[in-house]
């Protein structure tokens, strides 16, 4: 008879564990900052032993119209849970957006109107669809926290606020710093962690995801679940992805972001310039490529990164095309810093519009005569195609929309149709 100990899991060395589920390993080990309580091993055990799909919560406040790659880090983690058979709860914080998350803010956030929140919430779902599984039955719950927060009575609010002390609130770094520096901290801001925590109670969350900046709010969720007699959630934080500037958190307000709805060329040209020291981190947090398989050459890494991410959000063909166009445009100089190309709105032009008139109106040339000289000198390109006929004209904005107009190697305008 086999000795019992030889089959016991504790006798199997970790590195050669035969039943190590790759999905669980990906969830608990790749792109994770912290798991509490108990670390990766505790969550892995819970995932392996559960007899029902777990409820995984990720809350996003619709404070702005666009999601960016920073948000996609937690969304991708949520998708991994779906792929392992669990229920993703994508919580649109339509009520908490009206309060405003004080996390990471040096002063109170401007408060949004319900109409602004509603407009942003609408676009979020279309963007989240690019990452989450919206199709497999039972894998996704789309919720809004106004469902339970809007109806809380004053009595319930008092009970909720009785769960936390001022000392605990001031342990939150953002509040402490502002309080010490004399920057006003408004009382409604204290409600934010409590309301986000209460969301976990209402949803009976088993796991909550968030960036590392959400630690305090996630822990409040655990405390409130204990108060309500629930099993407290695991908290899994993901690292904060730095933006294209190379050191600050990727954020809309810092204009260092890559938006999830950006066109392939813009995405590509931003991502092929991710600073070297961040390329591996972008691979880790935004792709599934094993880090051991990355090319040694730094330039090849940047290109692979840009192509992989463009392919995820668009298609492999779009990624190839973006690479070709970017190469032909020799994107340097003006796009060096953030990868962004200045936009020029073509709605107000008079059509048919001559190319030299467009070059002057867009500021790419000083005058129509200068534009004519540049065209004849072979310096003008539209989407990488040289145009040498100064009489070239366009009948409507549809012929130009989305294209990149270029003079020489350093001056670009993306032609867009936006009224301003
Ligand atoms: N750059 C980032 N990297 C990783 N996670 C992020 C990043 N930005 C936001 N998140 C996470 O996405 C979730 C939703 O964030 P939230 O709606 O509060 O956006 P935010 O932090 O205010 O973004 P922004 O500063 O762009 O407005 C949170 O868990 C947050 O930690």
Task: Walk me through what this model shows.
The N and C termini lie far apart (about 80 Å). The strands form three sheets. Strands 1-6-5-2-3-4 form a six-stranded mixed sheet, with helices on both faces. The radius of gyration is 25 Å and the shape is globular. It has about 425 residues and is α/β, with parallel strands linked by helices. It has 18 helices and 13 strands. It is about 40% helix and about 10% strand. Keywords: Aminoacyl-tRNA synthetase, ATP-binding, Cytoplasm, Ligase, Nucleotide-binding, Protein biosynthesis, RNA-binding.
Concise structural overview:
It contains 18 helices and 13 strands.
Number of helical stretches of at least 4 residues: 18
Describe the strand arrangement of the main beta sheet, using strand numbers: 1-6-5-2-3-4
**Whole-number radius of gyration?**
25 Å
* Oligomer designation: single chain
What overall form do the CA principal axes indicate?
globular
What name is given to the CATH topology of the largest domain?
Rossmann fold
**CATH class value of the largest domain:** Alpha Beta
Given the helix and strand composition, which structural class is it?
A: alpha/beta
Number of individual domains? 3
Ligands bound to this protein structure? adenosine-5'-triphosphate
Low-confidence stretches: 1-18, 331-339
Strand content: 5-15%
Instruction: Tell me the span between the first and last alpha carbons.
Output: 82 Å
Mean pLDDT: 87
CATH architecture field of the largest domain: 3-Layer(aba) Sandwich
The largest β sheet comes out as: 6 strands, mixed
* CATH H-level homologous superfamily name of the largest domain: HUPs
């Amino acid at each position: 008879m086999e000795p019992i100990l030889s089959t016991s899991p504790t006798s199997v060395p970790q590195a050669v564990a035969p039943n190590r589920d790759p999905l669980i390993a990906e969830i608990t080990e790749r792109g994770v900052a912290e798991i509490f309580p108990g670390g990766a091993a505790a969550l892995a055990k819970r995932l392996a032993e559960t007899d029902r799909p777990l409820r995984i919560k990720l809350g996003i406040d619709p404070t702005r119209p666009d999601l960016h790659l920073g948000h996609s880090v937690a969304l991708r983690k949520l998708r991994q849970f779906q792929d392992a058979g669990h229920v993703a709860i994508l919580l649109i914080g339509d009520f908490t957006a009206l309060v405003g998350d004080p996390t990471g803010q040096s002063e109170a956030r401007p408060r949004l109107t319900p109409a602004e929140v509603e407009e942003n919430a609408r676009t979020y779902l279309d963007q989240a669809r690019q990452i989450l599984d919206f199709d497999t039955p039972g894998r996704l719950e789309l919720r809004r926290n106004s469902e339970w927060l809007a109806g809380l009575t004053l009595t319930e609010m008092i009970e909720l606020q009785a769960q936390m002390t001022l000392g605990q609130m001031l342990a939150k770094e953002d509040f402490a710093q502002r309080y010490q520096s004399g920057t006003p901290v408004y009382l409604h801001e204290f409600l934010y962690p409590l309301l986000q925590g209460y969301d976990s109670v209402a949803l009976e969350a088993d796991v909550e995801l968030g960036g590392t900046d959400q630690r305090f709010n996630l822990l409040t969720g655990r405390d409130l679940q204990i108060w309500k007699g629930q099993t407290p959630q695991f908290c899994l934080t993901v690292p904060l992805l730095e933006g294209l500037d190379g050191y600050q958190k990727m954020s809309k307000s810092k204009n260092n972001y890559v938006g999830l709805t950006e066109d392939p060329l813009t995405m590509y040209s931003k991502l092929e310039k991710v600073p070297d020291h961040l390329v591996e981190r972008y691979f880790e947090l935004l792709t599934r490529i094993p880090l051991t398989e990355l090319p040694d050459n730094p330039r090849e890494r940047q290109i692979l990164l840009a192509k992989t991410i463009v392919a995820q959000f668009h298609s492999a063909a779009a990624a190839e095309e973006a690479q070709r166009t970017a190469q032909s445009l020799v994107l340097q100089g003006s796009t060096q810093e953030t990868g962004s190309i200045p936009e020029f709105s073509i709605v107000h032009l008079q059509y048919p519009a001559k190319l030299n008139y467009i070059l002057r109106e867009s500021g790419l040339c000083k005058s129509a005569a200068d534009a004519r000289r540049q065209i004849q000198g072979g310096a003008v390109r539209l989407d990488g195609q040289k145009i040498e006929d100064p009489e070239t004209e366009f009948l409507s904005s549809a012929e130009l929309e989305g294209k990149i107009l270029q003079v020489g190697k350093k001056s670009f305008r993306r032609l867009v149709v936006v009224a301003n």
